[in-house]
Amino acid sequence: MRITLVGSRHFGVTTLNMLREHGVSIVRVVVADAEDRLAATAKAAGIDVVVQANPKLVVASEIAPDTDLIVTAHSHARIGKDALEAAKLGGIGYHPSLLPRHRGKAAVEWTIKEGDPIAGGTIYHLADRMDAGAIAAQEWCFVKKGETARELWERALAPLGLKLLADVIDYAKVHKALPSKTQDEQFATSAPSLS
């Protein structure tokens, strides 16, 4: 399976490392910033790196030829429809909430702010609307009393994201397709950023 990884920062690097250990071919890494640690890690591993022309949008020309699947890991760019069509299976991303709850940026912070006793992560199909594509995999975890967003992310949600991404990629390798369940819009929440 040939994967183009779009991402940044620490979660992008840990996703890259998980993919490398998972028997897939990472044919390209796409980043918004040439100085990002994901770009440096990919270059050191001999992986082709492309810097997005527009940091808010990934286009088809930035996706490696013959890509089977686009995987996003800590990317805030929209993956354009033409880019999704350039990959045989489209694209998936990890969102650190039980979608459709807490769509958008700052999902972990909103989990804490809302006092949710349960959090979780979702692997979802990338689509025109941010965080609104079909669910490929989802799992929950408890939130500890007094836990900060960063503590919840590091303790539970980042490891859960790597596990769920691996599970969906394993499924795709076997079935040449992605699991898919439509999000139930009646449970959607979307909050403004916390800034």
From TrEMBL:
<dbReference type="GO" id="GO:0004479">
    <property type="term" value="F:methionyl-tRNA formyltransferase activity"/>
</dbReference>
<dbReference type="Pfam" id="PF00551">
    <property type="entry name" value="Formyl_trans_N"/>
</dbReference>
<dbReference type="GO" id="GO:0005829">
    <property type="term" value="C:cytosol"/>
</dbReference>
<dbReference type="InterPro" id="IPR036477">
    <property type="entry name" value="Formyl_transf_N_sf"/>
</dbReference>
<dbReference type="InterPro" id="IPR002376">
    <property type="entry name" value="Formyl_transf_N"/>
</dbReference>
<protein>
    <submittedName>
        <fullName>Methionyl-tRNA formyltransferase</fullName>
    </submittedName>
</protein>
<keyword id="KW-0808">Transferase</keyword>
<feature type="domain" description="Formyl transferase N-terminal">
    <location>
        <begin position="64"/>
        <end position="157"/>
    </location>
</feature>
